[in-house]
Amino acid sequence: MDTQDRKIFVAGHRGLVGSAVVRCLQRRGYRNLLIRNRNEVDLTDYRAVATLFRAEKPDVVIDAAAKVGGILANDSYPADFIRDNLFIQSHLIECAYRAGVRKFVFLGSSCIYPKAAPQPMREEYLLTGPLEPTNEWYAVAKIAGIKMCQAYRRQYGFDAISLMPTNLYGPGDYFDLEKSHVLPALLRKFHEAKQRGDAAVTVWGSGTPRREFLYVDDLAEAVVFLLENYSEEGIVNVGTGEDVSIRELADMIRAEVGFAGELRFDATKPDGTPRKLLDVSRLSALGWRAGTSLAEGIGKTYRWYLQHAAELRM
Ligand code: GDP
């Protein structure tokens, strides 16, 4: 069968990652995409997933479905984060294996690495120390997903690969002020502050934590690249290899939005882990690198936000 004719189930196609994966597959000529809305197939319901796989028999599964959120959401809803993610990924992996799926792509997260891991973080640092407490529930679920993929590969020869993206942002992101991640939250805060003519914008924490940000369409390119070129047990980091402080990020967003006021830091909000930067040498050695700079990606995301602000779930 022609590669582009394989039936690819993109789980979580309405999310930030899934929608970018769908765009990327379409750009690359994949013609046979399988997508289902949440009201058609609830991925936390094993029977619903099993029925879908029996009926549709996809060749490839890209698991971009997850319950995700920023630092406060993770800290406030630990049960939701560990349960929903364990359910969704286990159902997808098990049903894909049973239905004879030929390739499974699992998406993890850079928060699977220990809080005190040396920076940049290499793939082999997995399970070498305690996790960051604010998102350990999500991280433990994702680690279980990685291990499940590795176990199914070892025991059944199931071709499951796992990618660990760094902090993502881009079109289709979630712009809630309380529950979203820092980049979309700050874009919205600066935008609304500018509209209201506020004197200052409040940034959570101290501004000193450092984070790496990957434009989601770049991640989607990496997903398709590894889908086509990688078939091993080892996890693969996906990032840019560069980080910025939250203060630097806030300054970039302030400049993009054109907000003239000042920054204030709210020390009552958590900083989270001090630094999160991936070592991307494994992916570089395979021949892939990110193409979008942070400034360019912030600009594209802000333009998308301006076009969609009215209809966003906020
Ligand atoms: P993390 O990478 O898991 O810590 O998740 P976040 O993207 O939520 O937060 C990254 C960093 O940005 C943390 O140090 C936050 O305290 C900081 N931050 C600053 N302002 C904001 C904001 O408005 N929303 C969020 N979510 N984080 C913020």
Automatic annotation (TrEMBL):
| Enzyme nomenclature, EC number | 1.1.1.271
Active-site positions on this chain: 138 (proton donor/acceptor)
Instruction: Please give the superkingdom of this protein's source.
Output: Bacteria
Q: In which pathway does it act?
A: Nucleotide-sugar biosynthesis; GDP-L-fucose biosynthesis via de novo pathway; GDP-L-fucose from GDP-alpha-D-mannose: step 2/2
This protein's UniProt keywords: Isomerase, Multifunctional enzyme, NADP, Oxidoreductase
Q: Per UniProt, where does NADP(+) bind?
A: 12-18, 107-110, 142, 165-168, 181
What Gene3D superfamilies does UniProt report for this protein, alphabetically?
A: NAD(P)-binding Rossmann-like Domain (3.40.50.720), UDP-galactose 4-epimerase, domain 1 (3.90.25.10)
| Keyword Aminoacyl-tRNA synthetase listed | no
User: Which GO biological process annotations does it have?
Assistant: 'de novo' GDP-L-fucose biosynthetic process
Marked site, Important for catalytic activity, at 109, 111
Give the coiled coil ranges: none
Q: List the catalytic activities from the record.
A: GDP-beta-L-fucose + NADP(+) = GDP-4-dehydro-alpha-D-rhamnose + NADPH + H(+)
| Residues annotated to bind substrate | 189, 204, 211, 271
Domain NAD-dependent epimerase/dehydratase span(s) in chain numbering: 8-239
What's one Pfam family the UniProt record gives for this protein? Epimerase
What's this protein's name?
GDP-L-fucose synthase
Lineage here is: Bacteria, Pseudomonadati, Pseudomonadota, Gammaproteobacteria, Methylococcales
